[in-house]
Amino acid sequence: MADKPIEAVVFDLDGVITDTAHFHYVAWKKLAEQLGITIDEAFNEQLKGVSRLDSLELILRKGKQKYEYTEMEKERMADEKNAHYCQLLTQLTPNDILPDIPELITSIKEEGIPIGLASVSKNATTVLRSLRLEGTFDYIADAARIKRSKPDPEIFLTACAGLGADPRHSIGIEDAAAGILAIKASGMFAVGVGPSLSGADYLVESTDRLRWDEIKSSYLMHTAINH
């Protein structure tokens, strides 16, 4: 039986296209300090790939303040964090695109494979504009309309649907454990970037190790074994 063609490649944004994790950390740390809660970069790893309100819940739980605020107050705090984060985003330039990502995108597009973006960030279009990547992606999942955060597969399934692709014949690229779980739950082939992503089907340490030919080979081998 002939190999099924790859129907789509869906990227996460933070940690894959660019690294705004530090900006998130700075903004969350400032808010946490105002609440009398101490967080560090190790704790911030838990917030990667998690929605804004869910991230706030994790911080409040750490500070044993989970039940001290109304939903309206939590919304206000999340908005305050986001405003600070957006200020930091203005510092981004195309130089902040992670190594070899432009080359990877070009290689995929040259084969006529559509690419999508599956980021829980509601600031994704702002980030892409700063990086001058607006118009690069064929479909961007609207985080504002996603009801369930990663590790739920909703955002990857939404991106595949928007691209008209079967998830079982598509590839997702992520740098967070929650994202890898979401990709796998969707039925996609999971490419992990970074350490300790044991659930990934194909894993590299950093974006400069991402090579389209190697990803394709691994995908085809995985598909042959599992189908």
Layout of strands and helices, then pairs:
Layout: E1 8-11, H1 21-34, H2 41-44, H3 52-62, H4 71-89, H5 101-110, E2 115-117, H6 124-131, E3 139-140, H7 154-163, E4 170-174, H8 177-186, E5 189-193, E6 202-204, H9 212-226
Parallel strand pairs: 1-2, 1-4, 2-3, 4-5, 5-6
Describe the model:
The protein is of the alpha/beta class and 227 residues long. Helices cover 44% and strands 10% of the residues. The chain has a 6-stranded parallel sheet with strand order 3-2-1-4-5-6, sandwiched between helices. α1 crosses α4. It is globular, with a radius of gyration of 18 Å. 40% of the residues are buried.
> Percentage of helical residues?
40-55%
The portion of residues forming beta strands comes to 5-15%
Give me the CATH architecture of the largest domain, please: 3-Layer(aba) Sandwich
Separate helix tally: 9
Which terms would index this structure?
globular; 9 helices; Rossmann fold; DNA polymerase, domain 1; 227 residues; 6 strands
Summarize the structure.
With 227 residues, this protein is an alpha/beta fold. The chain has helices at residues 21-34, 41-44, 52-62, 71-89, 101-110, 124-131, 154-163, 177-186, 212-226, and strands at residues 8-11, 115-117, 139-140, 170-174, 189-193, 202-204.
